[in-house]
């Protein structure tokens, strides 16, 4: 911002004021993943965005995955990674690795990174306070996925306690059941359910694409806003297809469960979170 004058800086802050007022004391759930999680510069930009939002009175909840780190650890331990219909098959050895990497390594690194950016964060996982209770999930055609779970209940108390103490909750998406089994939970799904349970103002899913495109090969065909009632039609047209289906289904579920809006944004764009929340431009595709 070397060429930006002090007057320009003041105008930027004034332009952001209505959005700060809109979101003040409201909850925003951010699902953090993709390239923004592995590229150091993007990671720093995300942490800066989250700390800034927190300091202006917006209650940020960060939900994260960690697929690449899990794959890396499984490879190092010579445990085979196997996928069924795009979902990781998680056997007993793999679930121990998932728990260790997500709730341990990745979670604590993010808490540490937020602290380096002068943010106050608390690391949690779905097992803490039975925040995420799950049951065994199978594929649509009944195939076994091992210790992959479907959320049956969300207890928001640990998250609300952290927010009430002025902290940013950083949540690893592993869950438990009544018998003490641990389950791997899809981070998009978990973020949607958590946002709904918290009555969040917004759910933000960070991805490695610009948003929902009419033509998947042409970024200029971005659809900026979608009513959830349009989604079945967009699926029939093939505009919503492949890996976008589960992400968009999460956005639809969040909105139908009471979240004001859900948005898929391009995590490859530096400060995309701030652009989405504190400007009238926004980025990505908003579901309302």
In terms of DSSP E residues, the strand content is 15-25%
Indicate the overall shape: globular
SS-based class: alpha/beta
Major β-sheet profile: 8 strands, mixed
**Quaternary arrangement of the chains shown?**
single chain
Strand order of the largest sheet: 5-8-2-1-11-13-14-12
Radius of gyration from the alpha-carbon trace, in angstroms: 19 Å
Q: Care to describe what's here?
A:
The protein has about 290 residues and is α/β, with parallel strands linked by helices. About 40% of the residues lie in helices and about 25% in strands. The protein is built from 9 helices and 14 strands. The strands form 4 sheets. Strands 5-8-2-1-11-13-14-12 form an 8-stranded mixed β-sheet, with helices on both faces. Strands 3-4 form a two-stranded antiparallel ribbon. A two-stranded antiparallel sheet has the order 6-7. Helix 3 (about 65-75) crosses helix 4 and helix 6 packs parallel to helix 8.
Task: Please name the defining characteristics of this protein.
alpha/beta; 14 strands; 24% strand; globular
Short characterization:
This protein is 40% helix and 24% strand.
Give the topology:
Layout: H1 6-23, E1 27-32, H2 40-55, E2 59-64, H3 67-76, E3 82-84, E4 87-89, H4 92-116, E5 121-125, E6 132-138, E7 144-154, H5 157-164, E8 168-172, E9 174-176, E10 182-184, H6 187-198, E11 202-207, E12 225-226, H7 231-236, H8 244-256, E13 261-266, H9 272-277, E14 285-287
Parallel strand pairs: 1-2, 1-11, 2-8, 5-8, 11-13, 12-14
Antiparallel strand pairs: 3-4, 6-7, 9-10, 13-14
Helix pairs in contact: 3-4, 6-8
């Amino acid at each position: 911002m070397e060429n930006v004058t002090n007057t320009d800086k003041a105008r930027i802050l004034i332009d952001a004021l209505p959005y700060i007022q809109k979101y003040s004391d409201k909850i925003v759930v951010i699902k953090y993943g993709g390239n923004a999680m592995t590229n150091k510069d993007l990671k720093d930009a995300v942490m800066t965005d989250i700390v800034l939002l927190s300091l202006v009175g917006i209650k940020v909840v960060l939900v994260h995955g960690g697929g690449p780190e899990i794959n890396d650890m499984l490879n190092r331990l010579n445990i085979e990674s196997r996928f069924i219909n795009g979902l990781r098959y998680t056997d007993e050895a793999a679930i121990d690795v998932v728990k260790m990497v997500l709730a341990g390594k990745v979670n604590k690194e993010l808490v540490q990174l937020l602290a380096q950016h002068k943010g106050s964060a608390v690391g949690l996982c779905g097992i803490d306070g039975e925040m995420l209770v799950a049951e065994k999930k199978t594929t649509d055609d009944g195939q076994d996925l091992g210790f992959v779970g479907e959320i049956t209940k969300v207890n928001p108390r640990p998250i609300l306690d952290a927010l009430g103490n002025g902290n940013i909750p950083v949540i690893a998406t592993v869950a438990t059941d009544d018998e003490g089994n641990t389950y791997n939970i899809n981070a998009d799904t978990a973020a949607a359910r958590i946002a709904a349970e918290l009555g969040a103002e917004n759910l933000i899913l960070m991805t490695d694409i610009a948003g929902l495109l009419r033509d998947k090969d042409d970024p200029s065909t971005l659809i900026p806003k979608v009513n959830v009632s349009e989604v079945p039609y967009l699926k029939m047209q093939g505009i919503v297809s492949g890996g976008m289906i589960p992400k968009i289904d999460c956005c639809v579920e969040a909105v139908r469960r009471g979240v004001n809006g859900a948005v898929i944004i391009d995590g490859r764009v530096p400060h995309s979170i701030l652009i989405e929340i504190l400007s009238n431009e926004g980025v990505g595709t908003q579901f309302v």
